[in-house]
Write a structure and sequence with these properties.
Blueprint lengths: L1 E8 L2 H7 L8 E2 L6 E9 L2 H11 L3 E5 L1 E10 L6 E7 L4 H14 L13 E6 L6 H15 L6 E11 L5 E6 L1 E5 L2
Parallel strand pairs: 4-10
Antiparallel strand pairs: 1-3, 1-8, 2-7, 5-6, 5-8, 6-7, 8-9
């Protein structure tokens, strides 16, 4: 099953914002599944997964204790299948933590992260890309939603997660964090 390293976010305000997009067939990401992915690792199980857990047991990264939203947008812009809250990577702490994790793991396994790192929290998803008519509507909804963005979002912890067959995320191990006040 796919595994990834992510900051646990659990903010009901984000769920309320996501509900604005339900009329366009977006599914709200439940509060218990909200996260910010630092690093997608790939599909690993068995001995490889045990090795990853062991490798992460002695890692410590420095991360902010809160995230500052900077906007709300569609990802990818060409399809519009995800509504995301973009966050500021103040002092590049998220990027630096990602690099520490990449360095630790890439010596032992092949990482399958294929996207450029753009810190965000997905709050709603849809299976099919938006059509032109829906793009017109969503622009207005995004403008309204941007007015509802919280000033900050509290980070709860950093975990290695596994995606289950039913789409939930199972925390496999907690990763040590030195929290910094922003």
């Amino acid at each position: 099953m796919p595994i990834f390293i992510a900051l646990k976010i659990a903010d009901e305000r984000l769920e309320r914002i996501a509900e604005l997009f339900k009329d366009l067939d977006f599914n709200v990401v439940p509060v218990e599944l909200q996260h910010l992915t630092l690093l997608f690792i790939g599909d690993y199980s068995g001995k490889f997964l045990e090795k990853i857990v062991k490798l992460l047991s002695d890692v410590e990264v420095t991360l902010p204790d809160i995230l500052k939203p900077t906007g709300i947008s569609l990802l990818p812009p060409s399809k519009g299948t995800h509504i995301v809250i973009e966050v500021l990577d103040e002092d590049n702490l998220l990027y630096k933590a990602r690099k520490v994790l990449e360095k630790k793991l890439s010596k032992h396994i092949e990482l399958r992260d294929r996207y450029e790192f753009k810190p965000h929290i997905t709050i709603a998803r849809r299976l099919k890309p938006l059509n032109n008519k829906a793009y017109t509507r969503i622009t207005r909804i995004l403008q309204n939603a941007s007015k509802m963005l919280p000033r900050f979002i509290v980070v709860h912890d950093l975990y290695l997660y596994e995606t289950s067959r039913n789409g939930t995320y199972i925390p496999l191990t907690r990763i040590k964090v030195k929290w910094t006040k922003i």
